[in-house]
Amino acid sequence: MITCIIKYHIDPTKKDQFVQYGKNWSEAIPRCGANLIGYYAPHEGSTTLAYGIYNIKDLAAYEQYKHRLGNDPLGKSNYEFAQKEKFILREDRTFLKLVAS
C-alpha cells in the first residue's frame, strides 16, 4: 500500500471553491479505486495550503485509477471546475510508503 499526498497551493480568496472540489472528489476517488483519507482545506495558520490524501495498492494500480478518474463524469467535471475557477495555483504529488505506525 502507498499513500499519495497532494499538496495544493490555493488562492486564499477562493477557499470555498476548493472545499467544493474536495467534496466532489469524496465521491469520485473511491468509485475509481483509491481509498480516500480526506481533503483538507485551510483553517488556521496558512491560508494557501490544502491537502488531498488517499491510499492505493501500488503505482500500477495508481495508473489504472488515473485512467478511470479521467473518464469518470464527476472526475472530468471536477477537473474542468478547477481549470475554470483557477483556485489551484500549484499542486505537488508525493507517494509515500508507511514504515511504522
Concise account of the structure shown:
The chain is of the alpha+beta class and 101 residues long. The chain has helices spanning 15-32, 59-71, 73-85; strands at 2-10, 35-40, 49-56, 88-96.
Verbal overview:
There is one protein chain. This protein has 101 residues and is of the alpha+beta class. It has one domain (2-96): Alpha-Beta Plaits, CATH 3.30.70.100. Helices cover 44% and strands 32% of the residues. It contains three helices and four strands; from the N terminus they run βαββααβ. It has a four-stranded antiparallel β-sheet with strand order 2-3-1-4. α1 (15-32) runs antiparallel to α3 (73-85). The longest helix is centred in the N-terminal third of the chain and has 18 residues, at 15-32. The protein is globular and about 35 Å long. The two termini are 14 Å apart.
Labels describing this entry:
Alpha-Beta Plaits; 101 residues; alpha+beta; globular
How are the SSEs ordered, and which strands pair?
Layout: E1 2-10, H1 15-32, E2 35-40, E3 49-56, H2 59-71, H3 73-85, E4 88-96
Helix pairs in contact: 1-3
CATH topology: Alpha-Beta Plaits
Q: Given this structure, which CATH class is correct?
A: Alpha Beta
Helix content: 40-55%
Largest sheet composition:
4 strands, antiparallel
Secondary-structure content class = alpha+beta
Number of helices: 3
- Strand content bin: 25-35%
